[in-house]
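PROTEIN DESIGN WORKSHEET
SECTION A - STRUCTURE
LENGTH: 198
TOKENS:
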């Protein structure tokens, strides 16, 4: 009974924090609510027995991704008026995605459970070993393809951020190595009270 009550407590708190991410007017508050949603998801995974997934969620998403989001949002100067207008424009699309996700959840939890397609077989291996076994046997190609997609996303981000601009000074190693001391050092002997033309 205590486990069920704790599960519902974290589930309700997760729904509240997720809605706060969407409807918060301040972007920094939205990211902080996102961290709270990840933390509640971690507790939910631990409660259902998936400790490895919960700890990985806490380490990767709270410790890296959400903090990165927080730094980016705090460095950007975001106007709240622009956010409100841009959010209103995407409300129909958000409702469509929400309906699709809700229908998938209902299908997986109600329809498939009633048909008896979901069978939970007790196993002696822990969930870390079970996840590794599934990832590297049944879903090995999918796992490798997801890694390639992440690699392409990283390369795309690097290409997009390294746009050549003439105003930006860049290091030219071959030019630095070919420069002699006579080209860089200039000796002057100014008289007293006179300056040097730079």
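SECTION B - SEQUENCE
RESIDUE ASSIGNMENT:
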């Amino acid at each position: 009974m205590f486990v069920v009550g704790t599960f519902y407590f974290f589930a309700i708190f997760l729904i509240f924090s997720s809605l706060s991410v969407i409807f918060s007017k301040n972007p920094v508050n939205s990211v902080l609510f996102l961290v709270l949603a990840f933390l509640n998801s971690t507790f939910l995974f631990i409660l259902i027995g998936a400790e490895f997934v919960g700890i990985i969620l806490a380490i990767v998403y709270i410790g890296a991704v959400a903090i990165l989001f927080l730094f980016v949002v705090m460095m950007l100067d975001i106007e709240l008026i622009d956010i409100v207008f841009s959010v209103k424009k995407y409300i129909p699309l958000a409702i469509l995605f929400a309906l699709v996700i809700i229908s998938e959840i209902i299908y997986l939890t109600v329809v498939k459970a009633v048909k008896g397609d979901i069978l939970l077989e007790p196993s002696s291996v822990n969930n870390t070993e079970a996840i590794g076994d599934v990832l590297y046997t049944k879903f090995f190609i999918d796992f490798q393809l997801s890694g390639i997609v992440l690699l392409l996303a990283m390369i795309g981000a690097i290409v997009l951020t390294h746009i050549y601009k003439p105003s930006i000074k860049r290091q030219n190693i071959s030019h630095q190595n070919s420069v002699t001391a006579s080209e860089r050092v200039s000796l002057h002997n100014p008289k007293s009270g006179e300056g040097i033309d730079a």
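SECTION C - NOTES
The first helix runs from residue 2 to 23.
The two ends are 82 Å apart (CA to CA).
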